[in-house]
Amino acid sequence: MTRKTQRDWLDTAVHLLAETGFTGLTIEALTQRMSLTKGSFYHHFSSYQGFKTRFLQFYEGEGTLAVIERAEKGGTPQEKLRRLLEIVVTFSELSARPEVALRVWALQDEEVRQVQQRVDEQRTGYLQALLNQIVGDEAQALKAARLLYATLVGAEQMQPPITGADLQKLFDEILRFYGII
Questions:
Q1: For 24, how many CA atoms within 13 A lie in the half-sphere containing its CB?
Q2: How far apart are the C-alpha atoms of 142 and 122, rounded to whole Å?
Q3: Is the pTM of this model over 0.90?
Q4: Most buried of 39, 73, 104, 167 (most Cβ within 10 A)?
Q5: Which class is domain 6-177?
């Protein structure tokens, strides 16, 4: 049997959150999903609170900072924007459910709310900076960034979620409206 890492626990937690919502994200559910003992969980996390804090760091790092880092890999601001939207569209089908569940959790938990707020600010801030480099108008860049991000968040909330090529079409329409493409 392969040893499980903290990353394995966190990846499993993302899937469990997507399937069950935050109320189903328990030590018992995680250990059952991974066919491991509570001792194994406590080997990686000091407590459920320690797990939750680490999980939120993981969410912020993987879902925001790593995406921005990938988008920033060279090129013009237009190329970075295209790369960013491609990443978002590619992963929209996979990421919509945990994102929605996390937003629901943020309504119930102050720590989660603070992380979600910071993630939203980082994402829109990055978009605004990219768009400002393209259009040279900070106010217009802020409006376009908020509209693009609100479209993503709203698309995730739809039933079924708007993903893939349909999401890309919405992004393209916004970019055309602002004269960015």
A1: 14
A2: 13
A3: yes
A4: 167
A5: mainly alpha
